[in-house]
Amino acid sequence: MADVRLGIIGLGAEGGMYANFIAEGKVKNMVIGAICDNDPAKKQVAEEKYPGVPFYDNYIDMLESGDVDAVVTTVPHYLHPEMGIESLKRNIHALVEKPAGVYTKQVQELNDFAASKPELKFAIFFNQRTNPLYKKVKELIDNGEIGSIRSTNWIITTWWRPQGYYNQSEWRATWGGEGGGVLVNQAPHQIDLLQWICGMPKKVYAKVNYGYQRNIVVEDDVTAVFDYGNGATGVFVTKTHDVMGTDRLEIHGDKGKIVVDDSKKVTIKRLKQSEKEMSDSMDMSDVMKLFMGGGAGDIFTEEVLDFGNVWGEQHIAVLEDFASAIVEGTPLLAPGSDGINGVRLANAMHLSSWLGKEIEVPFDEDLFLEELNKRIAEEGKYPVRK
User: In this structure, is residue 268 part of a structural domain?
Assistant: First the structure.
């Protein structure tokens, strides 16, 4: 196969961005095979911007047309597993947008079906995994540069959304249409990165505010505490009402510390001795000399790496990674099966807040779906889920 013919399902902001990148020749080994959208107005947009590209208003028709080798699903979250399965059924490679779904039970169905079709490529659009900054942080952790993780702390509140954002679509910020708020819309990349880099927590406790500063029924403010099962803990804070938001990740290990500011700068502090070795060997006079004498710099080295802004390049990198896996058989940076981890972590935060207690991971998936369906039923706008 010379070029992968990609079918784009949903010509909105994301789908339009991917189509532009491909049409401009920025994605190696990939062309636009077809476009699908159930909004009649998008047909004219597609004809003007991408002349000659087949357009469909039903994605099944597109899958069965012979025009595409692979698809990307830029549609509401609940549809990702369904569309992924229908694509794979027809021997079409699938790249699903984040999150992989709204609840783990439906995502597991997608993963199980994908596992039955190992000859096909199944990926998820975790573009932050292609970000050189986060790839570097993962490399540092995996190589033991700061030793065993003792704590993590990510404050990611750079998602400010005014009320008008939520008013623009009926399905947005609803349980039945979108499946949640900041945890399923804005923060899935960070939730994925946390577990990708630092591992999955064993227990989760979350304080979640629903409609705290916006007229919505879903969450706009979350503070969660993670227990990694070995004494290490984590804190995750995210919200959509901080107009001067913060993006700061700290990972503290027994041999040092990594701090990421604004997803642009990484500061690595490496201890010359592990913290335990220092604790076992130093008496209080040593401690006094260390901190009162200003000698803290003698115990660690500091490295600062500036990465700048790589927006856009990450999305191109995911598309190229997907195409390369299909054409050349290279391994995927973000296999689709990984998508369930972030969904599971977000589900655990929701379930903890709904039940008012700490949740063990993995949890009872049927219980989560039961609680989600209670909220969908209360809305009265959408059918409950199975």
Answer: yes
Neighbours of 197 (CB within 10 A): 21
pLDDT of residue 166: 96
Tokens of 60: 């099944």
pLDDT for res 289? 82
In this structure, the strands spanning 122-124 and 149-156 are unpaired
Q: Specify the number of domains making up the chain.
A: 2
Exposed/middle/buried for residue 129 (C-beta within 10 Å: 0-12, 13-18, 19+) = buried
Same domain for 160 and 264: yes
Q: How far is the C-alpha of 55 from the C-alpha of 298, rounded, in Å?
A: 64
Q: What is the DSSP letter of 6?
A: E
Residues 6+ apart with CB under 8 A from 175: 217, 218, 372, 375, 376, 378, 379, 382
**Contact assessment for residue 311 and residue 19, using Cβ atoms and an 8 Å cutoff:** no
Please check whether residue 254 is in contact with residue 147, taking contact to mean a CB–CB distance below 8 angstroms: yes
- In terms of domains, do 85 and 162 share one? no
What's the token pair of residue 26? Answer: 């920025």
Is residue 154, in this structure, part of any structural domain at all? Answer: yes
Query: Residue 308 burial by CB count (10 A; 0-12/13-18/19+): exposed, middle or buried?
Result: exposed
- Please give the DSSP secondary-structure letter assigned to residue 356: T
Q: What is the mean pLDDT of each run of 10 residues along the chain (386 residues)?
A: 93 96 97 97 96 98 98 96 98 97 98 98 96 97 98 98 95 96 97 98 98 98 98 98 98 98 97 95 88 76 89 90 97 97 98 98 98 97 95
User: 340 phi and psi, to 5 degrees?
Assistant: -70, -25
21, 27 contact by CB (below 8 A): yes
Is 34 in contact with 66 (CB distance < 8 Å)? Answer: no
Q: Is residue 27 a contact partner of residue 319, using CB atoms and an 8 Å limit?
A: yes
Nearest-angstrom CA–CA distance, 113 and 98:
18
Structure tokens at 231: 């004494």
Q: Are residues 154 and 72 in the same domain?
A: no
Question: The CATH number of the domain where 260 resides is what?
Answer: 3.30.360.10
Range of the domain at 270: 131-307+343-379
Kindly state the tokens that stand for 382. Answer: 């959408």
With beta carbons less than 8 A apart as the criterion, state whether 217 and 377 touch: no
